[in-house]
Amino acid sequence: MAHLLTPGPAAMAQHMIRMRLALMRNSLRGDDATNLYAGVSFGLLLALGTIAVAVLWPAYLPLTLAVWFSGWIFGPILIGGGNEALRPEYFSMLPARPGRIAAALLAGAFAGPVPAVNLIALLSLPVYGWRFGPAGVLVGLVAAVTTLVTMVMISRVVVALIGLFVRSRATAAAVGIVTGTAIALCSNGWAPVVAMGVTDTDAWSEVFVRVLPSGWGVAAIEASWPLAIAILVANAGVIALLLAAWAVLLSRRVVSAARGGVPPRRGTPRPFPATSGARAVAAKELRAWWRDLVRIQLLATAFSYAIVTPLLLITIDVWVMVPFAGLIAIVMAAASSANLYGADGTALWLTLMTPGAERADVRGRQLAWLLIVGPAAVALSLAGTLVSGETWAWPWVLGLLPALLGGGAGIIVLLAVTSLVPGTDPHKRGGNPLSTGADETAETSLAWLVLCAVPATALPAVGAILLNPWAGVATGVLTGALGAWGLGRIAYRRLENHGIDLLNLMKHGPAPQADKPTTADLPIQHRIGVMICYTFGWLPLFPQGLVPMVMKIFGIDNPVWFLALHLPPIWQWPVIIFMIALGLLMYGYAILIPMRLSSSSSVTSS
Asked: Which chain regions cross the lipid bilayer (predicted)?
């Protein structure tokens, strides 16, 4: 009888689509709307660029589509398991087969801007098929739809597999290592390709990009009619198999009891250390770092990225980054730890109910982070400097290491209490163990803020090293100690004065402020401009400006991928200065335009 009350497949899919659109419509407020508009605008530019590749450079179309496919694979992993507005757990009590629920959830997954933008990019297939006549256009249209469904389905299956198998520390660390390696390959994957020689890789790369699911459409367009039909039919069969596999994985996920942490082991638990104050908090935090799968995965991502990035550059005999592997790990680990209180959920009430516990809580979290990150970063730095043979790097490593450690320990607790992103309580998380339930966009923005703020705390040490290399070591130790102590003091003072506000924020979310202007109140062109400047301002400022400036100062001749170093010497310094100025102007625009909006609004209201 219950099955008779369950809507049919078409009606259930329609309900999922309507729920997904309603959730999206009701969440588009403030900066979330700005981020969505800017992201869609940028995605449309990339999609139009993909169509342009099909027209002007058709030989590179399979590679371009492979980049879109990699975004579907690694994007959800990088943002903590993907945006699951409609969780399978919500529909576990429906009297319907897992396959029907999976098909309905798949329909809901297409109700959003990302699949629509990807479909526009895949229109490059019929454009490419025009070279082969009307039949090629028809095959391209069918291939565009099947390729989109295949990409979405593979993305969902990969995330479901990770969520199913990440049930231990080893698997969480493995996912983190894969993620960190993928990020490193995205930034410096060109190095091993250059080392192997482009001419040697042309043949197998053309085959490889067509073997990927993103290249099946191109292969069908280029094939004869019987083979093209066979490829499309096989693609439809793969979609059916992926849907069946996803249904099984979703059913396994719903009945799984794991909620993002390591299950308690059997036997007598280890006694808690007989101590109090910051040491007790540090002991608790160390256990949280050891048991929380999200923290393990993020930490593994940080260290794997720091290790793989210099190794990729070694393939082209560039050893300059090897001594700084530990420093990179510190910055990345700080970026992944910036939402400490948000990741704990409403557990903050335990601290607030204990008189005078705010200081011990902040200091204990700092101590635990230093014990987790510090020894590994020190070992990486010392080993990297010894192995690389770059003796000039010793003052830089020894000076920047304590400065970044202290600055990171201070920045993460300060932002944790000033820029908290509400998350789900660990025991209430869904079946995806890599998702904290927090706003992925806000957490990503917070991580970017840390990536800029932590290196800034080492600027005094950098200046001292440029004046006197070994005086910078003492400066680094002093600035690191002051950063950890001073920023930590500000953090626990704020926690004492605004702890209740933070608890309300975690419990109920941000309160609506109708009269306060936000970036979403800007005209659409300024909204897009602010988002683009925040997203890409670091490109001219750091990798094309500050880094080549440092290389020029130290006489490093390898140009790598820095534009200025590929130019004649007379143009190098002007281009470096231009890039730094461009980056600063982009960040200035992104900061001053919203400030101007706020000031004009306050004048109008008065």
From this structure: 34-57, 63-80, 101-125, 137-165, 172-191, 225-249, 296-316, 322-343, 367-387, 393-421, 446-467, 473-492, 528-551, 571-592
